[in-house]
Amino acid sequence: MTAPPTHTSEAPEPGTSRSGVTEREARQVAEAAREQDWHKPSFAKELFLGRFRLDLIHPHPVPTDEATRRGEEFLARLRAFCETRIDGALIEREACIPDEVIAGLKELGALGMKIDTQYGGLGLTQVYYNRALALVGSASPAIGALLSAHQSIGVPQPLKQFGTQEQRDVFLPRCARTDISAFLLTEPDVGSDPARLATSAVRDGDEYVLDGVKLWTTNGVVADLLVVMARVPRSGEEKGGITAFVVEATSEGITVENRNVFMGLRGLENGVTRFHQVRVPAANRIGPEGAGLKIALTTLNTGRLSLPAMCVGSGKWCLKIAREWSAAREQWGRPVALHEAVGAKIAFIAATTFALEAVVDLSSQMADENRNDIRIEAALAKLYGSEMGWLIADELVQIRGGRGFETADSLAARGERAVPAEQLLRDMRINRIFEGSTEIMHLLIAREAVDAHLSVAGDLIDPEKSLGDKAKAGARAGGFYARWLPKLVTGPGQLPGSYGEFHPAGHADLSGHLRYVERTARKLARSTFYAMSRWQGRMETKQGFLGRIVDIGAELFAMSAACVRAELLRTSDDHGREAYQLADAFCRQARIRADELFARLWTNTDDVDHKVVKGVLAGTYAWLEEGVIDASGEGPWIADATPGPSQRENVHRTIG
Fold it and tell me: Is the pTM of this model over 0.85?
């Protein structure tokens, strides 16, 4: 298994491509961009290897007193702003964030939450940045998306990690107070497949000339600064490759050709941006030529935490509405919450919201401490948060019944509380696609999870390696597995007294859940090893299997985080008994899901599904489509992105 396959739909057979880029070439580009080394320990990486390193997350890390003071002070100001200045219903109706609201956010310093104080930012920790996003996102998801895109993946983060001091001095003060930034990678025919990136950047003296089209540019309609990924052609000794640039949004030759409209997030300033002969100073290049994709992926390592943070905020709101509504609504002589069918949904919302907050806070605090490598933890948080957050929103709509399907405006018009449950469902749906779809996240995490195996045995399953290389790999693998496999047989999870500190008197017993995590981590590692032995080079095509492996790991990570958080709250005398109850309920639910996933590792319909898919693509079942009207409009499936001057009006607008 090398780099993950890219598109999850319209995929040709292995080795073929309509674009001229082979599947192997696409994998090699993605593989070259990922971080190759592990310089710090990783709890999640160890978990996938069958090693339950509780010491890496327990005792739960906590922010410093100073970080807490500054964070809480800002949250108080932000809450007051959200309650008095943000009208989420207005943003939903008009599909636009008022300029005065954005101006107020700038005055509050919200654009610079993650930017260091030396550049005029607030210098908040990842923990408090995420809490701020959860808060403002609950007032308006569109504002949450604007602030997240600006700071998590926009100009500030890549400059913080890869920019020169001169670039930081020039751009970070602007980003902290006045300028909105956007990140431009996706193109009309390029999603998670960077090998086919078409936007070009040609060196011309002390400048680069950019040409191309970028799609789904969140903040792009109102941005002042852009991070643009473009391909620099090879020239002389320069290897070229995908490269990152900071670009002024008002540069000559840039046209925002469309403001895109979506199912949800109706205030999102997302567009299509065309570059025609746009001149960018070479001094604005971030890092060396060819480092752009690595910069993008590294930026996302912590940037991905912002999305699950907002899912936590949504879960909290869903719990509040579910509690209040289910107590007020009566059926058959008692509140609907007391009917088991509805009660189970409420219990799921409460327990899962607790676990999601545990995952995000733990991952964020580890990011702040910088002692651990959290690339897998952040990816798991994004994957798990978006999937479980969607289920929470869906369950709330079901609990609300017909009122869950009715808009808030309609509810208010007939005299009832304006609860925007259906809006939440629409707004939450994109999270399973944003910043790496669930399918792509499965493959990215799976690649990292099997990295240890590939480092010692990768050449054994690489068809292009020589017999000599395979022999050397076999020797390395033999030594590694001789040491590793025996450790997967027994462990603390089989000892009844293990993790006893998680069973304090008067509290639910969480120690049994941690023993389950330890045992199951070893079982997960054995299953992965068996699959690699069975499928070898074909392992990378077993996306269904890899997805289930990752989902099991996500459940184990969430269980671990929930237990550790419950113990933190107990020792800090902050709702400890209730936290233990929620962690216990969540772990019981998660164990059932994990056991079901294990059963589906080897008993599934993957092979027959593949046959059906081939039949669908071949038109074998086209007769099944008869009897309906296709309401789609005319036009190509993918818009033409041929470089050249724009023929459309520039809809970019500057917010003063």
Answer: yes
For residues 359 and 376, what is the distance between their CA atoms, to the nearest angstrom? 12
Cα–Cα distance between 549 and 553 in angstroms, integer? 6
Report the alpha-carbon distance of residue 525 to residue 46 in Å, rounded: 10
Which of 237, 260, 288 marks a domain boundary?
A: 288
The CATH number linked to 80 is 1.10.540.10
Q: Phi and psi at residue 258, in whole multiples of 5°?
A: -160, 140
Within this chain, do residues 462 and 569 fall inside the same structural domain, yes or no? yes
HSE-up (13 A, CA, CB side) for residue 544: 13
Q: Examine the domain organization and report whether 273 and 300 are in the same domain.
A: no
How many domains does the chain fold into? 4
Pull the structure tokens for residue 556.
Answer: 């184990």
Residues forming beta bridges with residue 254, ordered by sequence position: 275
pLDDT (tens digit per residue) in 339-351? 889 999 999 999 9
Q: Is residue 32 part of a domain?
A: no
Per DSSP, the chain holds a count of helices (H) and strands (E) of 23, 10
> Do 172 and 188 sit in the same domain of this protein?
no
Q: Are residues 174 and 214 in the same domain?
A: no
Q: Could you tell me if 140 and 128 are in contact, meaning their C-beta atoms sit under 8 angstroms apart?
A: no
The CA distance from 112 to 103, in Å, is 13
Q: Are 158 and 195 in contact (CB under 8 A)?
A: no
The whole-number pLDDT of residue 50 equals 96
Q: Cβ neighbours of residue 611 under 8 Å, at least 6 residues apart?
A: none
Q: Are strands 270-281 and 207-218 parallel, antiparallel or unpaired?
A: antiparallel
Angstrom distance (rounded) from CA 384 to CA 547? 12
Whether the CB-CB separation of 260 and 271 falls below 8 Å is answered with yes
- By three-state DSSP, how is residue 41 classified? coil
Q: β-pairing, 241-248 with 225-232?
A: antiparallel
Tell whether 361 is covered by a domain: yes
3-state secondary structure of 491: coil
Q: How crowded is residue 327: how many other Cβ atoms within 10 Å of its Cβ?
A: 12
Instruction: Tell me: do 216 and 283 sit in the same domain.
Output: yes
Q: How many CA atoms lie within 13 A of 162 on its CB side?
A: 25
- 3-state SS, one letter per residue, for 12-36: CCCCCCCCCCCHHHHHHHHHHHCCC
Report the run of H or E that residue 106 belongs to, with start and end: helix 99-108
Size (the chain), residues: 656
Number of neighbours of residue 276 by Cβ within 10 angstroms: 17
pLDDT over 70 for what percent of the chain? 94
- Which ranges in 450-602 belong to alpha helices (H)? 451-457, 467-484, 511-535, 543-571, 576-602
Q: Tokens 């025609």, residue?
A: 276
Domain presence at residue 417 = yes
List all residues 6 or more positions away from 529 whose beta carbon is below 8 Å from its beta carbon. Answer: 453, 481, 485, 488
- Cα separation of 380 and 650, whole Å? 39
Convert the pLDDT of each residue in 609-626 to its tens digit: 999 999 999 999 999 999
Give the structural domain span for 420: 294-438
Here the tokens at position 589 are 């639910």
Query: How far apart, in whole angstroms, are the C-alpha atoms of residue 338 and residue 335?
Result: 6
Same domain, 355 and 404: yes
Active site residues: 435
Instruction: Evaluate whether residue 20 is within a structural domain.
Output: no
Tokens read off for 347: 């219990």
Using alpha carbons, select from 320, 343, 319 the residue that is nearest to residue 331. Answer: 343
Q: Amino acid letter at 408?
A: A
For strands 225-232 and 181-184, give the pairing: parallel
∠ at Cα 399 (395, 403), nearest 5°?
Answer: 115
Region 11-31 average pLDDT: 58
